[in-house]
From TrEMBL:
Its main location: nucleus. It is found in: Nucleus. PANTHER family: ZINC FINGER BED DOMAIN-CONTAINING PROTEIN 39, ZINC FINGER BED DOMAIN-CONTAINING PROTEIN 4. It comes from Senna tora. Keywords: Metal-binding, Nucleus, Zinc, Zinc-finger. It comes from the Eukaryota. GO terms for molecular function: protein dimerization activity; zinc ion binding. One of its GO terms (cellular component) is nucleus. This is Zinc finger BED domain-containing protein RICESLEEPER 2-like. SUPFAM superfamilies: Ribonuclease H-like.
Length: 297
């Protein structure tokens, strides 16, 4: 890690296990010499309370020193928690003492776009909350039993047939992409829901014409653009722009979300269940890191 020619970008997150013990995961992101974007967990360790900005910044700084990376940091991507604002400010001042950051740390703190996007979309969905609620309840109603699914299939046939293999989908409310997929599928079956409303007196959630119209206006089909392999392009021209390509590695390594660090916790509950709550933090760390390594391989 210390020998890579460019800088690294960081993400981190804190997780509380079922034993109420806190753990911190620090992940480094960088473009290697073969122009492959790499993400490596630098540390998954016990985080003793208090989880203040001072303690968090000291933990991260100590980890960077262990990897000899304190002079190679470019950015730190965080979610919008107030404790993170305080932590990054302290860490930035610590790194700037030895002039370790570029441009005095002006580009050090990156806000997690996934969290920002989620807040924006949640506010936007409030405008069409009635329509969204009725469509979600309609899908729940149909999928509640085999009998209702059969009746709905009959409604599809009575509606003249619907040329789609989508099927109706129920969303997970905290996953915005699944809500889009639910709306997309429900709109294809609008006529079938209309017919179901006429023959099933127990079906109470049929959206009005205006509510269907609002659903039609929500995450619209995007135009298709051919994907550009940005890293491959810079790999091809790195000899022509040797210095610029090194800087490009730094910039293209910046993660726009903290998802990578958060994903390390997704297998945490499977490693430390309530039946294994007596496992010590050191064994917990080693077991989870081994599981993550096996998953990546």
């Amino acid at each position: 890690m210390a020998r890579i020619p460019n800088r690294v970008c960081l993400t981190y997150d804190v997780w509380t296990a079922c034993t109420s013990e806190g753990y911190i995961c620090l992940t480094a992101h960088f473009v290697d010499e073969n122009w492959k974007l790499r993400s490596i967990i630098l540390n998954f360790c016990r985080m003793l309370p208090p989880h203040t900005g001072v303690e968090l910044s000291n933990t991260i700084l100590n980890c960077l020193k262990e990897w000899s990376l304190q002079k190679k940091v470019f950015s730190l991507t965080l979610d919008n928690a107030s404790s993170n604002d305080n932590m990054q400010d302290i860490l930035k001042r610590q790194l700037c003492l030895n002039e370790d950051l570029l441009c005095d740390g002006d580009y050090f703190h990156i806000c997690c776009s996934a969290h920002i996007l989620n807040l924006i979309v949640q506010e936007g969905l409030k405008v069409a909350s009635d329509a969204l609620h009725k469509i979600r309840e309609s899908v729940k109603y149909v999928k509640a039993s085999d009998g209702r699914m059969q009746k709905f299939d009959d409604c599809v046939c009575e509606s003249g047939g619907i040329e789609t293999g989508l099927g109706i989908r129920l969303d997970v409310t905290i996953r915005l992409n699944s809500t889009y997929l639910m709306l997309e599928s429900a709109l294809h079956y609008q006529k079938a829901f209309n017919h179901l409303n006429l023959i099933d007196r127990n079906y109470k959630y049929y959206p009005s014409i205006e509510e269907w119209r609002r659903a039609t206006k929500m995450p619209l089909d995007s135009d298709f653009y051919e994907d550009l392999e940005v890293l491959q392009y810079w790999k091809d021209v790195q000899k022509r722009f040797s210095h610029l390509s090194i800087m490009t590695r730094d910039v293209l390594s910046i993660p726009i979300t903290t998802v990578t660090s958060e994903s390390a916790f997704s297998i945490g509950p499977r490693v430390l269940t309530k039946y294994r709550s007596s496992i010590c933090p050191e064994k917990m760390m080693k077991t989870l890191l081994r599981r993550i390594s096996q998953k990546e391989n």
